[in-house]
Amino acid sequence: MKKNVFYLLLLLSTQIGFSQNNLLWQGYFSYNEIKDVTESETAVFAASENALFSKNTITSGIKTTNTIDGLSGQTISAVYHSVKFNKTIVGYENGLIIVINELDGSLLNVVDIISKQLPSDIKKINHFMEFEGIAYVSCDFGIVQFNLNTLQFGDTYFIGDNGAEIIVNQTTLFNGFIYAATKQGIRRASITNVNLIDFNQWTIIATGGWSSTTTFGTDLYAINNFGFIHRFNSVSSSFSGIIQLSQPALDLRATAGYLIVTTLNSIYIYNSQMALVRQINTGQISESNVAFTCSTIVGDTIFIGTKENGLITASLSLASSFENITP
Predict the structure, then answer these.
(1) Percent of the chain at pLDDT above 70?
(2) Domain total of the chain
(3) 279 lies in a domain?
(4) Which end of the chain has a smaller Cβ tally under 10 Å, C or N?
(5) Euclidean distance between the first and final Cα of the chain, in Å?
(6) Going by C-beta distance under 8 Å and a sequence separation of 6 or more, which residues neighbour residue 14?
(7) Does residue 189 form part of some domain?
(8) Which residues are 189's β-sheet partners?
């Protein structure tokens, strides 16, 4: 009888322990602080501080990926989904890259940037840009090539003055050139140049600090550190300011039909004529203390990343209510 009571108490204790552990895991995998978003034609992928989730816009199904599945517990800083290769690339502040094969769910840790003989505080990954099977990885020291087919690293570009390390926030392709928005100017080089590792091949076409750059339609846009949107003039090879934002830009991206700019308190959505078609302010959202981090569009839905409130959706065409879809 005493043995039966002992076994019963042991079983209850074990179950309570498992329940407590589950609660701890649920608290650890917080999806509230959205670091970056990326998209395909039918899904959006959102990266929080140490976890990832995606939503299928057709089925409304949500999939989560966290450290139990193989992600690192380090801080995520960028995410990119390659439609062509059906892979999601997760970048970290310490330089780690994890490649998720969406076909079978397998994960690959790539530590080449971590292993580089560079100060540990300049290995942060800021952005991924894909061109002809190569992901150009913007880092706090320069640009690195990553082959999305072989999953191997290629050349590293130190494009600062005299080949020094330089913070590269974002890159884009425009009219045969790769443009890099850096802490010290916008720099460009021909994408077909076989010697891009030579810093002399990179030309400074705009001075000052630049947070972002992207190609939208037939134009090239960039935003400086003061929140001034510029458009590139191919004739003069220079940028001209066109729109002054009220705050610095945190995120700039282009989808098929829209240019999307995110600041701490506002999201601006422009059409191909750069007419403002939708503006969303934090005051429109009922949740308290909302601060934006990034945003994108899939179909007619705007997906809004926030600092503490997860991922929020809104309709592009209607000034409808907002919905929080965070797991």
Answers:
(1) 91
(2) 1
(3) yes
(4) N
(5) 45
(6) none
(7) no
(8) 178
What residue numbers bound the domain in which 316 lies?
253-327
Specify the residue for token string 């949500």: 62
The model's pLDDT over 131-187, given as tens digits with 9 standing for 90+, comes to 999 999 999 999 999 999 999 999 999 999 999 999 999 999 999 999 999 999 999
The H or E element spanning position 46 is strand 43-47
Decide the pairing of beta strands 323-324 and 311-315: antiparallel
Q: Cβ contacts of residue 236 below 8 Å, gap of 6+?
A: none
Reported as half-sphere exposure (CB side, CA atoms, 13 A), residue 322 has a value of: 21
Q: Name the stretches of the chain with pLDDT < 70.
A: 1-29
What pLDDT shows up at residue 211?
Answer: 99
d(C-alpha 232, C-alpha 235), whole Å: 9
The CATH number of the domain holding residue 322 is: 2.40.10
Q: Is residue 98 a contact partner of residue 90, using CB atoms and an 8 Å limit?
A: yes
Tokens of 136: 């150009």
Tokens 């003069």, residue located: 236
- 84 part of a folded domain: no
Q: What is the DSSP string of 9-42?
A: HHHHHHHHHHHHHHHHHHHHS---S--EEEE-SS
Q: Measured on CA atoms in the order 125, 128, 134, 136, is the torsion positive or negative?
A: negative
